[in-house]
Amino acid sequence: MATDVHGPVSPQVSPTSHAVRVEGLSRSFDGRAVIDDLRLDIRPGEFVALLGRSGCGKSTLLRILAGLDRDIRGTVLVPRRKAVAFQAPRLMPWKKVWRNVLLGLPGKPERAVAEKALEEVGLDHRTDAWPKTLSGGEAQRASLARALVREPDLLLLDEPFGALDALTRIKAQRLVGELWLRRGCAVLLVTHDVEEAVLLADRVLVMDDGVIAHEQTVDLDRPRDIADPRFAELRAGLLERLGVDTAAEAA
């Protein structure tokens, strides 16, 4: 099942060939179009990364897919079961980690539900911790656990590793890749990091002027090796699409 977030929310049957279907999507702020007649399809189980310059509309698109922004024109079909993890973990400081994981779930879910998700992200030893005692990486894993307990068919990630140090970021990237392989849900990752996009995604999209201006299939075996010449070639091509002079970067 999917939800059409154009106009009144109503159930729609999503084609089995798509986890996300967007047609003619437009979103304006103060008369300026941030998203302009955008089209996007994501297949079930596909990992898609979205690149683009700051202000190009990446995070706006993600918020629309999450149902957090409905002042739009066009059609957006997404699974009912979806979850979001943002760059800021957004944990409630007055609730222990396991209670944060269950926030927003309907009914009265048992603690065991949170414990299972925390174990999956390697945080079962911090179940009873207070958020202020977590490291940046631990807080981000708690945020991922909170997304996973929703058993999403679509996982939306908005720069989830942006505030992490380099080593923790590598570990978090590896974790997300493993979770995706295990869960089999569709993933849309918004990132500024081209290397991260090529490392994780089946397909990389470049957003510019409110539309998907370019897409690149990443046909590399997993796990991927950043030293692979084909990896470097894909990375260089995407950087050029983003306006980065790779020759100057190498110098």
TrEMBL record:
Keywords: ATP-binding, Cell membrane, Membrane, Nucleotide-binding, Translocase, Transport. PROSITE patterns: ABC_TRANSPORTER_1, ABC_TRANSPORTER_2. InterPro entries: AAA+_ATPase, ABC_transporter-like_ATP-bd, ABC_transporter-like_CS, ABC_transporter_ATP-bind, P-loop_NTPase. GO terms for molecular function: ATP binding. Coiled coil: none annotated. SMART domains: AAA. PANTHER family: ALIPHATIC SULFONATES IMPORT ATP-BINDING PROTEIN SSUB, TAURINE IMPORT ATP-BINDING PROTEIN-RELATED. This is ABC transporter ATP-binding protein. It comes from Streptomyces cylindrosporus.
